[in-house]
Each structure stands twice: as structure tokens, then as C-alpha cells.
């Protein structure tokens, strides 16, 4: 596998209590261009590694760690400046999925996922996006109310949700317009309205807010 140019020589912390799984993940990340892969088996080890290395480009962690909460670890890493966190979990429990995104994770992947799905999820996060394993997408695809910057729910129209989903899929305004039979200017207008409702004009932040609220997958 040839590393993607934007993914070469990134640093990663992998946290999981199963040595073989950590080794497999590390090998996959090396194929994707990881320059440094740190490993930890527990919350305590992860905290020690994080303190020693400072924020890496990416953290991949399990929620079911033997000595503490993986969700709390996600929150801690985000609060300490870690920019990208991928959760790799055994459970597709709706509470766990939503809690992970609310804590600040950019992706939720299942350990039962194929290597290609894991690679796609990691790649999406490295490129600044968000990702949910296809198996947990139905958990997130409910409701159309998203909290604004003042935590007041804002109602998104069905069309705005469609546009935002295509943004999450990595499509440009032109591609979205072609998909929905709209002009690029109309797509831009939809994104402006979405931005006002969500309190941000940044495409990645709009997607992250909508995904964490369960509006899009």
C-alpha cells in the first residue's frame, strides 16, 4: 500500500489491552505512513505515554480498558490538545457510540470491521473529517435537531441534512449540486444557512457537530 501524501510520517498512540490487536493496528498504520506508533494497554499506561510524548497526530483507543473508562480517556486527550481520536470498540451500543462522539472522538469503528473499513475511517479522520462504522450508522441517523453554539437546538431542514451528509462524504459544492440537481450557488446558500444555525462556517466543524448530535452518519 502506498502511503497517502497527507498521511506520511504521522504519529499515533494505540491503546488496547489485546497485544495481537495492537500489533495488527500498528502494522496497518505503518502501511498508511505512520512514522511513530506508541502503544499502551491500560488507561494508566495511556496517560503516562500521553504525558511523555505530548499530543500525537492521532490516537486510536478501545473503550473497554481494564482500569478505567475509555470515554473519560477520550475527553482527557481532547482537553490536552490531541487533535484526532478514533475509537475502536467491541460494542455497537447506542449509548457508547453517542458518548464517544460527544466526548470528542472523530470516528467510531468496530473491532469486527474489515481492515478496509478501519483504513477508510482512519484516513477520513487524518484528512480532517469524521467517520462512523457503517454498522453503527443507523444509531446516529435519527433526529434533525442540532445544538447551536449556545446549546439551543436548531432545526435543520431535510435538504440541509442531505447537503451536510454529502459534505461529510467528502463531496465539493459542485459535486453536491450535481448529486441533488442544484446549482453550486444554491448549495453554497444551504451551507451558509447551516453554518448560521450551527454557529460555524467551517465544513469539518459543521459535520462534527451534526454527527455528534446524531443528525448524519
UniProtKB/TrEMBL annotation:
One of its GO terms (molecular function) is DNA binding. Gene3D superfamilies: 3.40.50.2300. Residues 149-214 form the HTH luxR-type domain. The modification 4-aspartylphosphate is found at residue 62. Residues 11-126 form the Response regulatory domain. Keywords: DNA-binding, Phosphoprotein. InterPro entries: CheY-like_superfamily, NreC/VraR/RcsB-like_REC, Sig_transdc_resp-reg_C-effctor, Sig_transdc_resp-reg_receiver, Tscrpt_reg_LuxR_C, WalR-like. SMART domains: HTH_LUXR, REC. GO terms for biological process: phosphorelay signal transduction system; regulation of DNA-templated transcription. The keyword Phosphoprotein applies. This is DNA-binding response regulator. It comes from Amycolatopsis bartoniae.
Amino acid at each position: 500500500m502506498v502511503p497517502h501524501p497527507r498521511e506520511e510520517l504521522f504519529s499515533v498512540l494505540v491503546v488496547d489491552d489485546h497485544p495481537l490487536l495492537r500489533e495488527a493496528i500498528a502494522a496497518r498504520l505503518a502501511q498508511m505512513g505512520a512514522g511513530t506508533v506508541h502503544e499502551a494497554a491500560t488507561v494508566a499506561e495511556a496517560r503516562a505515554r500521553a504525558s511523555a510524548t505530548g499530543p500525537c497526530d492521532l490516537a486510536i483507543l478501545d473503550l473497554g480498558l481494564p482500569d478505567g473508562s475509555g470515554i473519560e480517556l477520550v475527553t482527557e486527550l481532547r482537553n490536552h490538545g490531541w487533535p484526532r481520536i478514533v475509537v475502536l470498540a467491541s460494542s455497537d451500543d447506542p449509548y457508547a457510540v453517542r458518548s464517544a462522539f460527544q466526548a470528542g472522538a472523530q470516528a467510531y469503528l468496530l473491532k469486527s470491521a474489515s481492515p478496509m473499513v478501519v483504513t477508510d475511517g482512519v484516513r477520513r479522520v487524518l484528512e480532517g473529517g469524521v467517520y462512523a462504522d457503517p454498522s453503527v450508522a443507523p444509531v446516529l441517523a435519527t433526529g434533525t435537531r442540532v445544538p447551536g453554539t449556545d446549546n439551543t437546538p436548531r432545526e435543520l431542514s431535510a435538504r440541509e441534512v442531505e447537503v451536510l451528509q454529502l459534505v461529510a462524504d467528502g463531496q465539493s459544492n459542485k459535486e453536491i449540486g450535481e448529486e441533488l440537481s442544484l446549482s453550486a450557488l444554491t448549495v453554497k446558500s444551504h451551507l451558509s444557512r447551516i453554518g448560521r444555525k450551527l454557529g460555524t462556517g467551517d465544513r469539518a466543524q459543521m459535520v462534527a457537530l451534526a454527527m455528534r448530535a446524531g443528525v448524519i452518519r
